[in-house]
Amino acid sequence: MNKMGADGWEKILIVEDDVLIAADLEDTVTTFGYETSGTADSFETAQQLAAFSTIALVDVNLRDGATGPRIGQYLASEFGVAVVMVTGSPELIETDLSKVIGLISKPSHPNLIRDVLEYLKTIRDGERGVSPGGMRLFA
Questions:
Q1: Could you report the per-residue pLDDT of 80-121, keeping only the tens digit for each?
Q2: Which domains can be identified in the chain, with CATH numbers?
């Protein structure tokens, strides 16, 4: 199944329950030429958008609690989505996130978001990328 946008770019899922942060992330993503598949604020809404996504930026604490890590694992294992956690509380990430690629802290500078998206696209293309400074890898 081809999950690329009409222009061949990756489709980015933003999993964030703060409306302003989600809008800012979406603006950043589209500014760098990527399309979004949508914004989810809970596990349920992330499930609905998963099939249309190739990359996900996932917050830890959402409307339905600290479900971000579970969402990240689900998106990666069930749909092959490249997932990076985006959180203001990186110290809370203690669970096994073997399917999630990495983590960046909020607030994130737009250039870091750009570099993370480029890195994820590179590794999704089967190439060996260099992870951006400011991103903690889980693998």
A1: 999 999 988 777 676 668 889 999 999 889 999 999 999 999
A2: 11-137 (3.40.50.2300)
Single out the residue of 81, 60, 51 nearest to residue 15, CA to CA.
60
The Cα 46–Cα 73 span in angstroms is: 12
Taking the complete model, does pTM exceed 0.85, yes or no?
A: yes
Spatial CA neighbour of 38 closest among 11, 60, 65: 11
Three-state DSSP string of the chain? CCCCCCCCCCEEEEECCCHHHHHHHHHHHHHCCCEEEEEECCHHHHHHHHCCCCEEEECCCECCECCHHHHHHHHHHHHCCEEEEEECCHHHCCCCCCCCCEEEECCCCHHHHHHHHHHHHHHHCCCCCCCCCCCEECC
Q: Quick check: 12 and 57 in contact, CB under 8 A?
A: yes
CA distance 104 to 117: 12
